[in-house]
Amino acid sequence: MVSHDYFRRWACQKMVEASHSNIWDGHWACAVLALIHLLEEKLVPSELERLIYQNLDKTVEEHVNSEKYRNDKAYNDCRSGLIELLIQNSGTANSLGHDVIYTYYMLDLLTRSDVPATAELYQAMKKLLEGFEESGPGFVTINDENVVIHPDGLETKVERFKLTPAIVLDLFHGFSRMPQMEKSDMQLGHILTHGHAIVQLKQAFNGDGLDVLDEALFTRIDILNFANQLEAVSSSIAVSEKRWSPLEASYWEQALSDNLHGHYYKYAFSYLKLNRMAERNFVDIQKFNRILLTE
d(Cα 99, Cα 108) in Å, to the nearest integer? Predict the structure, then answer.
């Protein structure tokens, strides 16, 4: 069996290459790392491991890197530099999640393995984070059109709390939106993955001032609340009665054919991990399935 560090190195190189081509390709690095977490933290039953490894292998085979990750000398300021960038960008209205998600996965990788944080990787991550900061707040689907809603001046309807795993789950469970909106923009799913990344970073680097990251998640929810007010189209999507649970084989079989840009993997890891962190034994599959809208 291939070492998990092989996949970690693949993820590092994917981030390097994404910084030179398409910043969204970093999703695949995060997806592979999410699958490794599910295995190593035993978040799923052992009988599902074979299927998860199949998903791992398929992802790496279908999204080949041009080169292998260089085993250069470690760049000692990688962690502090990326955290400083996150804090610096947290005051803008544009970095609403992917900067935090990418950084969480990579810093966690570097903390739990012997894979070196090279200067090349740091420069790649810095470029990706700056790219997210420049890209704007992203679009929201309203009445079948993709619309950019800038958060400046929006009414703040969501009460602000210090984010914890339990609060992230409550925000995710409690937010409602039309299925056709979620199918197009996956914003509800990103409440889950964005919030998860924030609380994991704050736990791992306690004392580094990362509570400032909380505001971006609440800003995302303010935008979605505003979008809900503008949505006039009734749901045109028939929500399937099928319930996809990451604790069952059918979920991973489905993911092999339709993994939503790796989101099946990140959604599963974020949801199961948050429930464990919050010490909740009940997994609400019906709520979880709202973010798995496929053809």
Answer: 14
